[in-house]
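On clarity, I found the account of how folds are encoded harder to follow than it need be. Since the whole study asks how a given chain folds, the encoding of that fold should be made plain. The format is easy to grasp once an entry is in front of the reader. For illustration, here is how one protein appears when written out as sequence plus structure tokens.
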Amino acid sequence: MELERKKLQTMFPHLSKELEGKSMAVGIESVRSDTEATERKKTTRQDFTGYSPDVIDFIRRCDTKEQAREIIAFLEKRSEISSEYGGRLREQLERKGLRSFGSKKEHDYYLKRAGYG
């Protein structure tokens, strides 16, 4: 394992640095409460180049509240969302339900929206 790490560091020093640190971590600080506006915005988007899904996108792929709770906990653990934001998401999940974040995103959602599926 250590040999593979050293080889990676030698071959791809910048990638190795990103993987080992949190230099490229991005905080997520938005809550989408107007799901219809969100859908309009996303359905008009044809090119997802450079698009990075956020916690809401991941929650919208969930089938159960438990799956959504796991996503929130995972992103908090990785410091991709704050515990305060995670708490707000959990509160919305319990008070308004899983689909309060938007309709379920099915398999190949982005490909279909971009016109490839």
User: Anything to note?
Assistant: The chain has one domain: 28-113.
